[in-house]
Amino acid sequence: MRTTADQVLLLARRSVAHTARQPAAVIFPLLFPMLLLAVNSGGLRAETHLPGFPTKSFVAFALAVPFIQGALFATMNAGTDLARDVETGFLSRLSLTPLRGAALLAGQLGGVVALGVIQACFYLLVGLAVGVRPAAGVGGVAVLLVFAAMIALAFGSIGAWAALRTGSSEAVQGLFPVFFVFLFISSMNIPRNLIATAWFRDAATANPVSYLLECVRSLIITGWNGEALGLGFGIVTIVAFAGLSLAAYTLPRRLAR
Amino acid sequence: MRRNLSVAQGVAWRTLHNVFTNPSLFVPQLAFPLFFFTAFVGGLSRIRDVRGFHYAGGYTAFQFVFVLLQSAALGGVFTGFGIARDFETGFARRLLLAAPHRTGIVVGYALAALCRWLVTAAFLTGVAFAVGMKVGGNGIDLPALYVLAAIMNTAGILWACGVAMRLRTMQAGPIMQMPVFLLLFFAPVYVPLDLLTGWIHAVALVNPVTRVLEAGRSFVAGSPTQVAAAYGAAAGLAALFSWWAVRGLRKAEAAG
Fold first, then answer.
1. pLDDT tens per residue, range B131-184
2. Residue A87 at interface with chain B, using a CB cutoff of 8 Å
3. Which residues are CB-neighbours of A20 under 8 A, at least 6 positions away?
4. Residue B203, class by beta-carbon neighbours within 10 Å (0-12 exposed, 13-18 middle, 19+ buried)?
5. Tens-place pLDDT, residues A11-27
6. d(C-alpha B218, C-alpha B141), whole Å
7. What is the pLDDT of residue A27?
8. Chain A nearest CA to B5, separation (Å)
9. Rounded distance, CA A137 to CA A151, Å?
10. Which candidate from B46, B182, B203 shows the least CB-CB separation from A194?
11. Would B160 disulfide with which of A226, A252, A255, B176, CB 3.0-4.6 Å?
12. Chain B: closest CA distance from residue A6 (Å)
């Protein structure tokens, strides 16, 4: 048990150090969502005048988006790093050691979750600095950080599965546009009940990313909303379970001993 | 001049052949603008109900102009990625050795970017008309919009070309893309300039892309405004980045 914990810790440390040594992998996930937040909150401020818009501050409304975007970047980081380990033969060398498969996954994803929480803290601090006050209070902030960690784990496990399945960092990078489509065809920029185009509203309603956004948004704008929290945590748990199961199923083929 | 042209033709043909025979390059160039168009028009059409929004063409046409100009500028940048790849693989160095007139290389890449974007523009226009975009402009207004976008495409490729020739690595991708992305999104993307408030309004006022965007939208609405300012801004960017690209070429030559 202790050996497995040591293995996880070592690999998590390697994952974090690997990311920290690539400035682009750290700065881009922090900076890009903030730039998009700045642009959208400036450009779409007029939207708050629409009847039924849930808040007078578009920044508060849009602050949920960086949490999901950050998770997308986490997916790419986790997947690309693991795929590079496959490409460079690091994983093959690991297969010659007594390392447990579960420890490899947990270590890799531990690094992603750590980065996801750091990103979430950064986004929250920026939000607080520009005057956003989470309606759910300090408890809500704690729940938000737990949710951010779960999102990073869920999306990171999908990235890890893609990396193990394809063994190609280029193929993992190719997933990015797919995730981006999910993000844009959601309630990212406007509440679902205010979307005028019927097919887009239906697509956003069917899109699980909308519920992840609404979970974060509820803690910032409305306070404690059981339905939004239940849907958000439920969906992220299902995605994490599916991603981890797929990655665990694929891992033995890559770690053939 | 003739030899310059033959170099340009060769580079353009090779670049276009690479793009149109490689689905991983060709599909995103069509999919991304379509995706932005869908997300903006579908998701944000309610903005037409915001007080003060009086665009004659409706929200579909309003966003079509932005996405068209975005596809033009970013289409140029994506061609710049190919230049960086050519340097990484060593092809560009062989090209520099073989070309009798090296400015023809830059012209060739610019021609390829333009042809590449024309396909995207035709596709996007077809989709926009299919979903019911209304055009108030006449037979001169609409071509004027495409000419404006073509100049933006040229400015985009020349900027990216200058970066690629200086850094000569694919890792320069974000440096090519990010400033163009910011310049585009610091313009009145979602609402007209008058409806922007605060810092974004101040930034949009001095952003040259704002003039291009506002003129483009006025062409589609059938009431052209700020035409000289828009063409001046676009041509100014293209001229500035021509100098930037040629200086980049000289740096690449010096680097060997």
1. 989 888 778 889 999 999 999 999 999 999 999 999 988 778 878 888 998 899
2. no
3. A26
4. middle
5. 888 877 877 777 766 77
6. 9
7. 77
8. 36
9. 21
10. B46
11. B176
12. 35
Nearest CA-CA distance, residue B177 and chain A, Å: 12
> Cβ contact (<8 Å) for B200 and A188?
no
Yes or no, beta carbons of B47 and A46 under 8 Å apart: yes
Q: What's the pLDDT tens digit per position in A167-184?
A: 877 677 767 777 778 888
Neighbours of B58 (CB within 10 A): 18
Structure tokens at B244: 């930037």
What are the DSSP calls for A107-165, one per residue? Answer: HHHHHHHHHHHHHHHHHHHHHHHTT---TTHHHHHHHHHHHHHHHHHHHHHHHHHHHHH
* Cβ-based neighbours of A223, under 8 Å, separated by 6 or more: A135, A136, A137, A140
**pLDDT for the residue numbered A1:** 56
Total count of residues recorded for chain A:
257
Cβ atoms of B11 and B108 within 8 Å: the answer is: yes
Structure token pair of residue A84: 């590079």
B188 contact A CB<8A: yes
Is A257 a residue whose pLDDT tops 60? no
Q: Which residues of A touch B189 (CB under 8 A)?
A: 39, 43
Record: contact B47-A39, CB cut-off 8 A: no
Query: Quick check: B46 and A196 CB within 8 A?
Result: yes
Contact A43 B35 (CB under 8 A): no
How many angstroms separate the CA atoms of A115 and B158, rounded?
37
Is B14 or A102 the better-scoring residue by pLDDT?
Answer: B14
Burial class (CB in 10 A: 0-12, 13-18, 19+), A26: middle
Closest CA to A190 of A84, A65, A80: A65
The verdict on a CB contact (< 8 Å) between A46 and B191 is yes
Cα distance from A203 to chain B (closest Cα, Å)? Answer: 10
pTM of the predicted protein model: 0.82
Average pLDDT, chain A: 87
Instruction: Please answer whether residues B117 and B76 qualify as being in contact, where contact means their C-beta atoms are separated by less than 8 angstroms.
Output: yes
Residues in chain B: 256
